[in-house]
Each structure stands twice: as structure tokens, then as C-alpha cells.
Amino acid sequence: MFNRRSLLGAASLAAVSKVAMAALPEPVSQTSPETQPPLIPPTGRPYNPVVTLNGWTAPWRMKDGVKEFHLVAEPVVREMAPGFTARLWGYNGQSPGPTIEVVEGDRVRLYVTNRLPEPTTMHWHGQRLPNGMDGVSGLTQPAIPPGKTWVYEFVARRPGTFMYHPHADEMVQMAMGMMGLWITHPRTRHPHIAEVDRDYAFLLNAYDIEPGSAVPKVMTMLDFNLWSWNSRIFPGIAPLVARQGDRVRIRVGNLTMTNHPIHLHGHEFEVTGTDGGPVPRSARWPEVTTDIAVGQMRQIELLADEEGDWAFHCHKAHHTMNAMGHNVPTMLGVDASDLEAKIRKLVPGYMAMGQSGMHEMTEMQMPGPANTAPMMAGEGPFGPVAMGGMFSVLKVRRGLPRGDYTDPGWFQHPPGTLAREVGDAPAAPTAPGATTPAAIDVNVRKPQGHHDHH
Ligand SMILES: [Cu+2]
């Protein structure tokens, strides 16, 4: 973890008066894209801290019985995947900003400094608070001008999973990555809030960054080309690690422009809470996919009792692709070899794509412009994982130490539990009345008035 002020050196540190230091909590920045180990709360009731995927928890200080945080809205550089870096806006050196983690009943004071080129505010999504602390520019306060610091203060009244984001020039500021998570732990045992072994959290976000550039296009409404979790794209998203038998909670918030059906392999889960609070046990049902609409939070819980590497992803197939243009003709079944040769005379190195599907894209690295995310490039133990974007892996392992979040590597499958190639297969049935594609091709290729020269 880097301390912004310490980077400036001792001379500038001495120039900061003790009075100013006492008034504002030191803003601390995170510069690494790695998942930071959970912050152990120094005082108060112990709780199982949340782990922000490829993110971190905001440090705070206690002052006169109030938990003080300092968020700095500023331009940031985010490595979205190895080899691909974006220029975003965020908080304290990262997008999303640090996760605010408090306990129900805490009085919280939040300093917000604006180092953006335009005004901003902070809205505390889902919180019960005095109306004047709600952070809607023009409605409950004037926007915070560049260079100024404002302070918000309220009691975290409800336990649950919440977010923070600007409520000023929202379209631009959220398209640039300005958002963060807020977790309020229950003060005492709550009938609808389980104690869990692992508690993960991330925000869904999306960017439109042209191949070879680094700044998001802020006018895009739907056709984004980077679908991310905490501003990271697979293979840049950390795995979710669990010990076999762990109860796991995953908190997901959606601040994109579309909904995301989040799907887990190998296990069932229940939605145990929303940004409206915990869901009563009688109102839960088992799922393997839950749709998370725009502006919603969903808190899911599962018993991680099946060992393995389980895919965990958005089920909209386009959202597990990176740097994808959508104005591409479908080439399935088209023989383009002749065409390719002709175009290559005009465009050296031209390559037709997708005549037998797009899987070939996983194995070939197109020579794209510098600073471009590969479309699908995760490398698995059996070859390329044809995925990018909103994709990660739940890694369930026997006998992991409690609180160990390090990547255990790929799963070693017990003998006899792997799908495999076989020699002779039993005859496969065909749908009654089915016509083969070849029979149709004969008709298509012999239109009236033409002669077949073959
Ligand atoms: Cu999605």
C-alpha cells in the first residue's frame, strides 16, 4: 500500500501543518491491482471482514467516537488485465474506490476531496441517512467544485451491502469508473444474516475503450466493449478461493447500463440480501443464476462443498468477451479462402474470421494495436479458456487454512473424474425427419440458370 504523501518526500511532509493533519484523515491510495488481504478491524466488535476482489478496504481513524474516512475523487490509472491499462476516474488511486466497511450503529464521517476537472458529489446508495447527506447535486447540496473538500456525517443504521457513487454528471463520472462498495456488518447476531467463512464483494462495471486507446468513451449507452468486475477483466480477475465446507457470501453490485445474470457452476446459492437489506429466510429459494439489474445489489450465499475450479460468470455471452466490435458479419459456414486471397492483395495480412466459429480467436493473438485487451485469452490447465470480461473461477479446495486467499493453482482432478476422448461411441440418434445441411447446400449451390462446373 502506498501513501501518497510519503511519495512526495520529507520536505513537503514537513510543510503540512499539524492542525491540517488533525482535521483531515490522511488520504491513503492503493496502486496495486491485486486483491488486498482483508483489513482487520483494530477496535470494536470483531467481524469477518469482506474481501474486495482486486481491490481494497478503506483505512479509517477513530476520532471522538466517530469513524473517519477520506475519499479523494481523482484521475487514476487502472491495469484492467495484464498488458492493458486504462485511464479512468476513481477514488484514492483506484477504480472502484476503496470499500467502506463499518458496523451497524457506527457514526461515520466521510471527507470527500474533489481532484477532478469538474464538480462532483457523493451519494451513499441504499443508506438511511438525513436527507441533506444524500449527495444529490442541486437537490440536497451544490456540487463539490474542483479542489474543494466536503464532509458527510451520519450513522450506519442498517446492516447490509451498499454502494457509493457521484450524483453529479453521473453519466460521465460512472462511465469513467467512479464507484465503490459499502458494507455495514450487523452489530449483534441478526436472524437473517449468517456468519460466513468467506465474504467477497465486487461491482459490475463496463467501459467502451477503443483498441489502442486508454480513455473510455463516455457517450456510449449500451455497446460497451469491456465488461468488468471492479474494473478488471478476465484473465485479470482474481479467483474466489474457498476451503471445502466453507460458507461463502458474494456481494455483487451493478453500476453498468444493463443487467447481468450472474451464474455459478457446480453449486446452488440463495440470494440472502439486497441493497434493501437482508432477505427473510422464508423468502429465499435456490438458484444457480441471479439477474442483477442496473442499480441493484445482490448478496448470494452458498456452501462450497464441491471441490474443483468452478466457472463463475455473467451469462450474457457477449459480456465474457473483451475488446469486441459487434459490427462483424456472421461468417459461419462461408468459404472465404478465395475472397481472403483477393483482399490480401489490397490489405496485406488480411484474415477472414469466424468461418467455423470464433474459437480460433482464443488460440491466435491478433496483432492488435498496443494496449488492447485480448478478446478471450485466459489460459487454463487444458488450453485457452474462451472467455474474457465478466468471468472468474470459484476455487474450492480441501484443507485450505482459514482466511487463506492465495490462489491454490489449478485443480488436480481425482482419477476417473475427468471427461475424456473415447474411440468407439454408440450410434447417436437423429431427430425424426431431420434434413442434413449437405442436402440443403446442394439446393443452395445450384440456383436456376447456373451451371455447376465441378
Ligand atoms: Cu453481463
Element layout with pairings:
Layout: H1 4-7, H2 10-15, H3 18-23, E1 51-52, E2 61-63, E3 66-81, E4 84-91, E5 100-103, E6 107-114, E7 123-125, E8 149-155, E9 160-165, H4 170-175, E10 180-185, E11 198-207, E12 226-229, E13 240-243, E14 246-254, E15 260-264, E16 269-274, E17 277-278, E18 286-287, E19 289-292, E20 297-304, E21 308-314, H5 337-346, H6 360-363, E22 378-380, E23 383-385, E24 391-397, H7 437-445
Parallel strand pairs: 1-11, 3-6, 5-10, 11-14, 13-24
Antiparallel strand pairs: 2-3, 3-4, 6-8, 7-9, 9-10, 11-12, 14-20, 15-19, 15-21, 16-17, 16-18, 16-20, 21-24, 22-23
Determine the number of helices (DSSP H or I, runs of at least 4 residues).
Answer: 7
Radius of gyration: 25 Å
Architecture per CATH nomenclature, i.e. the level-2 architecture of the domain at 4-187 = Sandwich
What's the number of extended β-strand segments?
Answer: 24
Q: Kindly state the mean pLDDT as a whole number? A: 85
The computed structural class is: mainly beta
Low-confidence segments: 1-21
What does this structure look like?
- The structure is a single chain.
- This protein is mainly beta.
- The chain has seven helices and 24 strands.
- The radius of gyration is 25 Å and the shape is globular.
- Residues 1-21 have low confidence and may be disordered.
- The site of copper (II) ion has 6 residues, from loops.
- It is found in: Periplasm.
